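>> Question from a student workshop board

For tomorrow's exercise we were told to take the sequence and the ligand below, predict the bound structure, and bring the output to class. My setup keeps failing. Could a helper post the expected result so I can at least see what it should look like? The ligand is magnesium ion.
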Amino acid sequence: MTRILRLSVLLMCILSSAWIVSAQKTQVIAHRGYWKTEGSAQNSLKALEKADSIGCYGSEFDVWITGDGMLVVNHDAKVDSVVIEQATAGEVLALKLPNGENLPTLEQYLELGKKCTTRLILELKPHSNRLREAKAVINILLMVESMGLSDRMEYITFSADALADFIKYAPAGTPVYYLNGEKTPQELHAMGAAGLDYNQGVLKKHPEWIKEAHDLGMKVNVWTVNKEEDMRWSIEQGVDFITTNEPELLQNILK
Ligand code: MG
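>> Workshop helper replied:
Here is what the output should look like for this input. Compare the format with yours to find the bug.
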């Protein structure tokens, strides 16, 4: 073997082992649960069960508080003509998801979460009323604590106020991530966040934030990554978590 050939083989081994190390580090989070499956729907109980059944690191879901104080799981602020923030629990819980389930309460979601091993990635949606948003944070934390789930939870939010409240009131060490994309890793570190959970467009514009976050001891999550080429880019950049609508595709790439 010539010297150049030996060196190229060595280089290839180093590069492929670096790829394996970075690939193993990245974890899969199912976005709104694993909903692209038979009988499932976004943010349904079935979607959480399916995400758990394929061994996702985490299953993400969205939370609102109704006008009369019930915590419920749904993505959109409004379903049909019902505005969740202004509606009663009775009105909201009568709504049907596309898979036929009734829109779930957070308590139902967490009860199922107890039987799963996947981590529960709870997104609190930004509410129009700051007071009700703060109430949602406190009620979520009290419910989670009373159900013995504190160490299974991670919190994410677009609201800087809710971010600060989760960091302040959640048990020490609970991971809390910011979604909105405008804060630097240094700013999030100063606030006490576990890291950034940003749109892939933001991280493509600021790939240096990934290393900066890691250097500060923080984690990086990227959403919502559904295409194979984008998954590979995120893995190569060394992100810790990828949130995706295609968890099985991502799992296969990581294998
Ligand atoms: Mg969400």
